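Record filed here:
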Amino acid sequence: MPKSTAQILIENIRRRHSADPYGIMKVVNPQPEEIKFAKSHLGADAWQLFKKKFVESINGEPVQRYSGMTHSDLLHYIKTSGERENDQFSEREKLQALLRRLDNVDT
């Protein structure tokens, strides 16, 4: 039975977002823990908190201690009505949850 277009799209998305899309880590046994740790991403809130606590400047611009943003970050946030740096990682988690729910739906 041929696959539907939706199934093909979901498979392509999963392949692109897998931890090892080209199968390189198949030759390393066991997988080093450092690689698993390096693949985790901070969402917008966690990244902003990290910058507030540990980063003094980005591209020569000081990070403000009260907001965790530079002045250009704040202007971008205002201009795009709420889009922040690393928001895409929060959206990725939402997409992954949606794909998991699609897997559980009986066809």
Observations:
- The chain has a mean pLDDT of 76.
- The longest helix spans residues 87-104.
